[in-house]
Every structure is written in C-alpha cells, then in structure tokens.
C-alpha cells in the first residue's frame, strides 16, 4: 500500500521547484526586504547568455554557503536559468561575496574584483557582507563590502533563502525584479 503512494508521488509531482512566485513570509518577517538594489551608478548592462558565478567567502559561518549550494539542487536548479559556478574570477561574470569582510581579506577581494570581466556585477549576500552583521563594530572588519568594492545587488538575511538569492541574481543581470516585473536599476 505504501509503495503505491510513493510511485504516484514520483509520477505526479513536479521534478523541480518552479521559479519562486513570492517571497517566503517567514523569512521576510525576519530579514525585511531581501533583495536591495544598489545605486544606479553600479547599474549593469543586460546580458543575454549563460553567466558564471565566482563565490568568495570573506569569513562566514557557512550559513550563506549552504543556501548558495541549494541553488544547484534539483529544487532550485539554477543551471536551467543559465547560471554556473566557476573557480576562476577571469571566467566569472558575477562575484558573489559572503561573510564578514576582514581587514586582511580586503586586498584579496579587490584583486578578485579587478580580474572580473566587464560589465562587473557583485552580489553581497547575507547581513555580514552588507553591514557586518553581528560583527559590526569590531576593529578588524571593514563593516561593509561596499567600502571595499562597488556592489550591484544586496541580499539581506541571516542567511537569505535560495529563492531570494536567485531573485537577486536576476536583478543583478537584468535590472528587473522578477516577481513584480518593475525595473529596479537602469
């Protein structure tokens, strides 16, 4: 009897989760507005091709990294939207930074940013990268990624959900909020 329900679920359920049609209200109540576009000066040009992401951990608790890895799972499968990870910043289109930016890592972050191709896009993921998080005020931190390199899009949360990160990737690439369709940056 149990096997019949198991087979029925395999045949009738969708193979992957669709694009998120709305923000998770539980996460939104904890973190506020999850996707925050940066200034218009850092506005990206629209690219219509596959994009490679270079992830840079600036010293995090691995909460944001676990959410980033969920993007490659069958539930989110961000490769269907043309996103992939690359180990080289020279091959990357988008730099994804997580964690608290410490003083010794500032030259490394700037070097990786300089190696990115044009147009350069940077995502600050998590409260630690955006404003220092719980480490704000400690002398050995830069407090914000924006003080080190220009940031295209910020995703708040500790950690943000994979759906919010995926939405932020679309905002960084197209400049359009995928849920509302309104233009965020020009």
TrEMBL record:
What GO annotations for molecular function exist for this entry? 4 iron, 4 sulfur cluster binding; metal ion binding
InterPro entries, alphabetized: Complex_I_20kDa-like (IPR052375), NADH_UbQ_OxRdtase-like_20kDa (IPR006137)
Q: Which UniProt keywords apply?
A: 4Fe-4S, Iron, Iron-sulfur, Metal-binding, Ubiquinone
Q: Which cofactor does it need?
A: [4Fe-4S] cluster
**Top-level lineage group:** Bacteria
Q: Which parts of the sequence belong to the NADH:ubiquinone oxidoreductase-like 20kDa subunit domain?
A: 61-169
User: Which Pfam families does its entry note?
Assistant: Oxidored_q6
Q: Name the family.
A: Belongs to the complex I 20 kDa subunit family.
Please give the name of this protein. Answer: NADH ubiquinone oxidoreductase 20 kDa subunit
